Amino acid sequence: MTSPGGIADLGPLNRAREQKAWYWYDWANSAFFTTTLTVLFAPYMIEVAGKAAGCADPDETCARTVSLLGLHLAAGSLPFYLTSFATILSAFVLPVVGAMVDRSPHKKRHMAGFAWSGAAVASLMFFMQGESWQIGAVSVVVSSILAGCSLVSYSAILVDISTEDERDRVSSKGWAFGYLGGGTLLLVNLGIVLGHDAIGLDKGMAVRISLLSAAVWWAAFTIIPFVRLRDHAPVNVVPESGSLFQRSFGQLFTTLRELRGYPMTLTFLLAYLFYNDGIQTVIYAASTYGSKQLDFGQSVLIATILLIQFVAFGGALYFGRLAERYGAYRSIVWGTYAWMVIVVVAMFLPARNIALFLLVGVAIGIVLGGTQALSRSFFSLLIPRGREGEYFALYNAAERGTSWFGTLLFGVVFQLTGSYRPAIFALIVFFVIGAVLLARLDPERGIREAGNAVPRAV
Fold first, then answer.
1. According to CATH, what is the number of the domain 19-449?
2. Element containing residue 418 per DSSP (H, E)
3. What is the Cα–Cα distance from 377 to 159, expressed in whole angstroms?
4. Is 73 helix (H, G, I), strand (E, B) or coil?
5. 308 near 368, Cβ under 8 Å?
6. What are phi and psi of 327, to 5 degrees?
7. What digits encode the pLDDT tens for the residues 189-226?
8. Does pTM top 0.85 for this prediction?
9. Which residues make Cβ contacts (< 8 Å) with residue 197, sequence separation at least 6?
10. Tens of pLDDT along 309-364?
11. Buried b (16+ CB within 10 A) or exposed e, 391-408
12. CA-CA distance, 425 to 13, in Å (whole number)?
């Protein structure tokens, strides 16, 4: 293709190069979310906190409490309360970070800086052992917040490197690539944890090495997008005076006032807050539910999560093609219905039935990547140009590994009932509310109100 002046249009080629570089950050950070937050951290922290609480058998569900900031929390609920606390802090931190990102011509520097800081803090989980659960508590909260900060810049870059018609494809490929990266490291960690005796390690050390490997992986592969992505000048910056930090607060307040003028954007953001909290809590609690309620050993749990990772790779690509034909909005709605079915089935799973547990894992993998990838790309169409950082900051406050309402409800229901079955079933309310809000959404109206072009399929 050439321009009217006869000069070749290199825009698509340049965008394709940056898109390939952009995918690598999904590959990098997915290892932290998968190995650490999804699989190993919660069960291991429950075991360590359980020892501190005086639980005799670390393999049994522990309802005894430990003291945190003057609160007495059940050891079995502690990881979920920590995740909720991280999200509460994120609600204050991420929007300011997003406003700063919108004003900066160096989004990739912010992305990499937060990523490397988060990886450094996450590496401290290696020192969580014996009864010393406190260092793990601090590390998971701080690293989760820093991961959210890096994802604000990462998501904002999507708009710089793709057109409206390319968003679903690019976002889906990024998620798919991320699941491959997370699954690859998890496969290595599966060998370490399951074969710890053969390589002369005890189980605790094997878990700690795996937690450390996720931090190193996250930091190392972030170098690729940092080097290969280009800087893009900010656009439509809201005029504000003062320092960059002060201007960021000013732009944030301006955007919050103007958000009322984008009712479809606000409706989707609320819907996403609910159904994504449900998704994140199901994934975050899966290993705990499987080990403490269904009596599966660590090998089955890690193998199931590994299965989900690789199935989700195909699921993300499948939903990307589904969006090309039917649109991202319809595909997201169908995904929320599928999550309702999964939660109901999970509640009635019999203990120690590996076949049914794996079948549910396959179902999760199919819809997991697709709903998340398309949510990101669809939301980008509802954002006024130049405000991506702020809007994605609000979006990422409810993103993977930082659920608030879901983990809080899961932990409270467990503490009240002493069982994870009603806790997992309670999550259906988030998918129901999300589906109801999505039904109230007019996607084409929302895209036009934001000033963006309506894709061929919505």
1. 1.20.1250.20
2. none
3. 9
4. strand
5. yes
6. 100, 150
7. 888 988 889 999 999 999 999 999 999 999 999 999 99
8. no
9. none
10. 899 999 999 999 999 889 999 999 999 999 999 999 988 999 888 899 999 999 99
11. bbbbbbbbbbbbbbbbbb
12. 47
